[in-house]
Each structure stands twice: as structure tokens, then as C-alpha cells.
Sequence to fold (181 residues):
Amino acid sequence: MFLEERELKVAMMDNVHTVLHQIFTLAVEENYMRTNIADNLLKELKQSHNIENDRKSALTVAEQEMFMDFLKREDTQYHHKTKIRAGTRTIPMLEEVREAFLMEKVYQEFNNLKCNVTIDGYTDFIFINRFGNVQHQGDLNKAIRRIIRDCNDYQLTKGGRNSVLLPKFSCHSLRHTFTPI
Fold:
């Protein structure tokens, strides 16, 4: 009822949630709170109001190849944060991904970057920002949106109307995609 009365859009809810989640994450890291009360809050709110969520699906092979080719060509740095709530998992890794991890480590050592956080007893995360904090999914999704925009612009100028274009997707969607190259 609150959403209907205030005429809030889903995008606005997402933006507010992103900001609040970041604030509460910092509060947890600084030991002001034990848990982040914004975890899963947006999902529950959408479910309670029957708000459709975009179905998360894997990218097609053509979309994967285009995405990877664009990242290589543009020399774009792409960072991500893994979630380790469900326990330790074994994930197959392409040699190209392994090399990217090693390059990131060399980059951090060269720039004297060190992980400054511990989350659920884990530390020494690979993908950190310039302050040594883990990357936040909101920041990653913004970077992905810019990459999608730039890649699709490039595709349209290069190939015209019949080009393969990247769909809107988030860093979470990439968990559903295995990119064989």
C-alpha cells in the first residue's frame, strides 16, 4: 500500500535499497550492527507487492563472445565480488580467467593495494576498490551498464541494425553464464 500511495517506481526502490545496503554494510564492518538488515529486503518487498523481477538468465554464446571481445578491445577493467554464504564451492576456471586473476594481483601489488576488510571470517579478497574495500554490486552493475551501452553503440555503428546486441544484465546474471572461449 505504501508503494502505491507514494507511486514509487521499482527503479527508485532499487536505488534506495542500494544506498541503504551500502550504509548498513559499513555499519556491520564497523561493528555498529551485527547483520545487514537490508539483506534480501528488496526481494521480499517486491514479492509482497507482486512486482515482477527480470528473470535472470545466461547470456547466449554470441552475447558472451561479443562481451569478452569488447572487454579485450577496450581494455576495460572488470571487477567482481563473490558471495560465500552457501559455503565453499569448486568452480571450473578457464585459463583466461586464471590469468586475469593473476594480472589483478600484480596490478594490486604494483599499486600497493591491500584488502582491508574481513567478512564472515574471510579476508584477502581479490577484487577490491582503491581503498581496499570489496567491490559493491551496485558499482559493478553501473560498470556493466556502461560496458553494455558502449558495446552496443559500437556494434550498431559497425554492423548496423542486424547486429547482435547485449541484453540488459547484472553481475548476478553472470553467475548463470559460463563463458567458453
